[in-house]
Amino acid sequence: KVLNIALPRVRDFRGLSMGSFDKNNNYTMGIKEHIIFPEISYEKIEDIYGMQITVNTNAKTLNEAKSLLKSLGFPFKEKGQANG
After folding, report:
1. pLDDT tens per residue across span 59-78
2. E strands within 1-84?
């Protein structure tokens, strides 16, 4: 749901950064506004909250971790693509 519904609702979303892997080959992404989730009712919102989502992998190498997440449909930015 995060990959296919919530992230595409982020304004100017162009993909996830490949630079967010840690030394243990885990991936962390930040979400600035919880309102990207369709379960959130705009009428009941008093404040906007952000969150960090970390995907822990058992990949032995960075390339294995990247391949795993790509195969799961993580929408990574293409090499050389600008932030935004």
Report:
1. 999 999 999 999 999 999 98
2. 27-31, 51-55
